[in-house]
Amino acid sequence: MKAQLTEIEAKGKRKFKLRTESTLALLLLVLAVCLTIFTKGFLTGTNLSNLVRQTAINGIVALGMTMVIIAGGIDLSVGSVVGFSGIFAALLMKNGVPVIWAVLLSILVSFIMGGINGFMVFDGRIPPFIATLGSMAIIRGAIMLVSGARMIAGLPKSFLDFAQATVLGFPSLFLVWFFLILFSILLTRHTPFGRNVYTIGSSIEVARLSGINIRLTTYMIYGLSGLMSGIAGILMTSRLANGIPTGGQGYEMDAIASCVIGGASLSGAEGTILGTVMGAFIIATLRNGGNLLGIDPFILQIVNGIIIVAAVYVDQYRKAHQK
Amino acid sequence: MSDYIVEMKNITKTFPGVRALSNVNLSVKKGEVHALVGENGAGKSTLIKILTGAYQKDGGSILFDGREVDIKNPHFSKSIGIHAVYQDIMLAQHLSVGENFFLGELPMNSPFTVDWKKVYSVAGEVLQSLDLKIDPYTLVKNLPVAQQEMVAIAKALYEKSKLMIFDEPTALLTNEESEELFKIIARLKSEGIGIIYISHRLEEVFRFCDTVTILKDGYYIASMPTASINEDDLISMMVGRKIEEMYYFEHHNSPEVVLRVRNLTKGHVFKNINFDLHRGEILGMFGLVGSGRTDIVLSIFGAAKFDEGQISLFGKPVEIKKPKDAIDLGFGLVPENRRTQGLALPLSVKININLLQYKKYSRFGVAINKKHELENARTFIKDLSIKTPTEEAIVRNLSGGNQQKVVISKWLSNKPKVMIFDEPTVGIDVGSKEEIYKLLEKLTQDGTSIIFISSYLPEIIGVSDRILVISEGRQMGIVDRKDASEEYIMRLASGIEETTERIESEAL
Question: Looking at beta carbons, which residues of chain A come within 8 Å of B341?
Fold first, then answer.
């Protein structure tokens, strides 16, 4: 009788899980079909590659954010790190540093910035929201200082070409994203690190009593979020052909929204990379479709907000009915 | 008007995977102190939570003051006059005593301003009427636990309680504080308030309770006047069998010393703890709540700091600074609170069982060996007969007993040399308990040494080879299995007596 009951419940739950994941895919499909029918420009090569390029940059930031959220944290500084990495690389190149070194150095600095977030959260016991809210402001301020709040133009052509390039018909930005998605899936699903991230997200006390190195894992989680943002910043600068001081502003919101729409729970231990990728696509498709349909961008912003709230509502509803 | 303040009839409650209550009855008269007894997991708290509106009953009826009521939520329960005083007191810690009296309904002297004068004068009067010397202006967090409990009682009294529920009220109190509480309970009784009293301390039940209701495994066993039953019969009704049978198993202790602890001290928490743990031995550790027993094992395990003392394992001094050090040395800990310390609740059975294994069985330390992960999980699900639909099921959905088996599996897969069990049988059903006792036997047979903490005397006497008794952080002695009686252990634990010779001989 006992075993039977648990079995029924577990079955019900599994079915539901399947349903939430496929719901996202279905939603995306419906969106795409509708847009193909109602707009002329949606299903064209130019539009799709444009859509994918724009999604890639936000999508990369969201990958790092997913791991932070699974671990029960949040990283509000990602937008500033995107901006910093972009400006920093631009400055280095402008001052004659070879492209490859400028890129690698910027990514390294972004990784360290993330690591410092991890340090504040673990060693300083500052709630992630506050710690990264602080670093968001600090890093944005640093950007303004080093750039004099001016755009940095005249970057090497080889650098600018990267974002426009295609390989086997795929936009390069998409390929970078794709590679990072694979990397993140491997990391979260097939490594001890990934398991530790989920365990820390369920309970720090359990992780501690199980001998998990929480300090190092926390540094790595926030470091990875910084690293992803750093890569996104480079790609953004290449795509926009300029180092822009306000670049990346508000990206944290898109990233969090992608995770949450994709099923990640802000209370930790729930969420998948695949879900976040779909979340990112849904947001980008809506935005792209709205533009094509000529909907007021302000209204699109409102719709975006409604979707975020609705997604979290569904998440909470699911949890309440799971007990 | 009925003689009874509350009559619960045929109450049934089912949780996913567990039937918590089956046709349980409980009737309390006005001005009666009614004891509710049963082992952990017998269904006492579930029954109480149905009364206070925290849970909804699935079947049965509740008559309150002669009228049938449907208690839908805690608010309704309070409004008809049911109040509960829990171990962990439900007061707003950062507000004053007076404010706590009026939480949510502060008296107003204009539409926008609070009548603070009234708040503090009324609170002061009620406290005084109970002979309590508590200043209503004090913040609750600055009061000792006992006084907080008194405040909670006074508050309930002010809110015109008709039925008061005490859930283990003396667990955190000293003897004198308990006496204070008993006086107040007598006052409540004389005012015609019905009282439900839950306690593991049977001497309290016999001292001032009029009637006792016994629950076992979610079933109603009996209700009777306390005058008509003796303690032994009450216990055997609670456990449903002779205690000796349930705990009987072979002991496998050998003279080899595995763990030696000397002079372990941490400020006021515990002082000068000395013991040897032998190969295959089960060393019980007994003390009342707050005696420091959990702090001692957490310190040994590296999860809490201690000031001084030496720990050696197989004759070699070891330095344990964090849980990882202890785990690497072969320690395991089934912690006191499995839901917050033992299990990653939102994750699967498989991941929980393998938590300690990932580093070890990963290719190059990076890629998880999924085959090994699955095999390891399946082995333990089978060996410990964990009832779960699949290894992918979320741990949160398992019953308490099966959850505890998952925690134990996690540690056993690490092949520990010293296992610490901190209250491993709290809140799990009798069947799982017996399986855990059997597992203890098997572990000791394989040479694992065990430290076993329990608050339940028959259990700790039943399973331990020796029992180390702690009272307020002091080691009162180590009692041999053959010398152990509930009375003797309790005398040691309450600090009345101590066995000095034993401490000295162990310290050599």
Answer: 203, 205-206, 209
Which of B 169-188 lie inside 8 A of A, CB atoms? none
CA–CA gap between residue B50 and residue B71 (Å, rounded): 8
At residue B202, the pLDDT reads 79
Judgement on whether residues B381 and B399 belong to the same structural domain of the protein = yes
ipTM value greater than 0.95: no
- The confidence band for B165, taking pLDDT boundaries of 50, 70 and 90, is very high
pTM of this prediction exceeds 0.80:
no
Report how far apart the first and last C-alpha atoms of chain A are (Å, whole number). 19
Q: How far is A83 from chain B (nearest CA, A)?
A: 32
More confident residue, B242 or B88: B88
Interface contact flag, B388 A6, Cβ < 8 Å:
yes
Same-domain pairing of B84 and B163: yes
In terms of domains, do B70 and B142 share one? yes
Look up residue B477 and give its DSSP letter: E
Whether chain A has a CB inside 8 Å of the CB on B467: the answer is: no
Tell me the average pLDDT across B240-254: 68
B399 and B316 both lie in a single domain: no
pLDDT grade, residue B244 (50/70/90)? low
Burial class (CB in 10 A: 0-12, 13-18, 19+), A289: buried
Same domain membership, residue B439 and residue B292: yes
Cα-Cα-Cα-Cα dihedral sign, residues B82, B87, B93, B98: positive
Tokens 């940095």 belong to residue: A152
Q: Which residue shows structure tokens 């785990």?
A: B327
| B459 and B369 both lie in a single domain | no
CB A283 within 8 A of CB A59: no
Does residue B369 sit at the A interface (CB-CB below 8 Å)? no
**Domains of chain A with bracketed CATH:** 40-320 (1.10.3470)
CA A145, distance to chain mean position in Å, is 26
Rounded Cα–Cα distance for residues B255 and B266 (Å): 29
In a domain, B180, yes or no: yes
pLDDT category, A19, cuts 50, 70, 90?
Answer: low
Q: Does B335 touch chain A (CB under 8 A)?
A: yes
Structure token digits, residue B144? 């000792």
Which DSSP category does B140 fall into?
G
Quick check: is B403 in a domain? yes
Domain identity same for B375 and B323: no
- Same structural domain, B305 and B365: no
Nearest CA to A283 out of A107, A64, A88, A24 is that of: A24
The amino acid that residue B400 corresponds to is G
- Asked if B390's CB is within 8 angstroms of A6's CB, the reply is no
Q: Is residue B9 very low, low, confident or very high in pLDDT (cuts 50, 70, 90)?
A: very high
**Are residues B475 and B452 in contact, defined by beta-carbon separation less than 8 angstroms?**
no
Domain that holds residue B445: 245-330+416-507
Q: Which residues contact B372 (CB under 8 A, 6 or more apart)?
A: B357, B361
